[in-house]
C-alpha cells in the first residue's frame, strides 16, 4: 500500500470495474507475495469456494486505470492482509475458462461474464497484519512452489500456475 493506514474496508461491487475496450475482458490485478528469501508465496482461500486456494487478486477499478500496481497492492491488502515492496511486473496472462466469452464491442457486465486479463506483480512481503478487511471470510497461508502449484491445479486455475511460473518462486 502507498499509505501508512490502509483501509479496513474492502471495495465491493462491479460498478467501477474496468474492462479491456477491445476484447471486453475483465481487468484483474494481483500479487505473487513472496517471503524475503523467495521460497514461499502467500495464498488466500477463495471467498466463493473456501476449500480452494488462489493468489490475492481482484478487479481493477476506474481510479486505478493508470496504476495497476496500486490495484494489486489494494487487493493484496484486502484479501491477504499483507503489505510489502513491489519488485517487478509479471507478464500478462489470460483466463483459461472455455465458456467465458471474449466480448467485442458493447456488452452488459451484469448479464455476461467476460474472460479476464490478469496483471500480476511480484511483491516481497514485509508486514503481515493480524486483522485485515477480509480476515473474517478468508484464510491465508504460506506455500512452497510445489504446494502452490498443487493448490492452483486442484482449483483448476492453470493461468495462475502460469503466473507463478513467471515469478522468482519458480526459479529460486
Ligand atoms: N473465475 C473462476 N475461474 C476463473 C478462471 N479460470 N479465470 C478467470 N476467472 C475465473 O473467483 C473470482 C472470480 O473469478 C469469480 O467471479 C469467478 O467466476 C471467476 P476466485 O478466483 O475463486 O476468487 P474469490 O472467490 O476469492 O473471488 P472474489 O475476490 O470474490 O472476486 P475477484 O477475485 O473477482 O475479486 P474482486 O471481487 O475483489 O474484484
UniProtKB/TrEMBL annotation:
Residue stretches making up the Nudix hydrolase domain: 24-165
GO cellular component, one term: nucleus
Top-rank lineage group of the source organism: Eukaryota
Gene Ontology terms: biological process: adenosine 5'-(hexahydrogen pentaphosphate) catabolic process; diadenosine hexaphosphate catabolic process; diadenosine pentaphosphate catabolic process; diphosphoinositol polyphosphate metabolic process
GO molecular function, one term: bis(5'-adenosyl)-pentaphosphatase activity
InterPro entries from the UniProt entry: DDP-like_NUDIX, NUDIX_hydrolase-like_dom_sf, NUDIX_hydrolase_dom
This protein's record includes keyword Transmembrane: no
Alphabetical keyword list: Hydrolase, Magnesium, Metal-binding
Cofactors, names only: Mg(2+)
Record-given protein name: Nudix hydrolase domain-containing protein
Organism encoding this protein: Diutina rugosa (Yeast)
Lineage: Eukaryota, Fungi, Dikarya, Ascomycota, Saccharomycotina
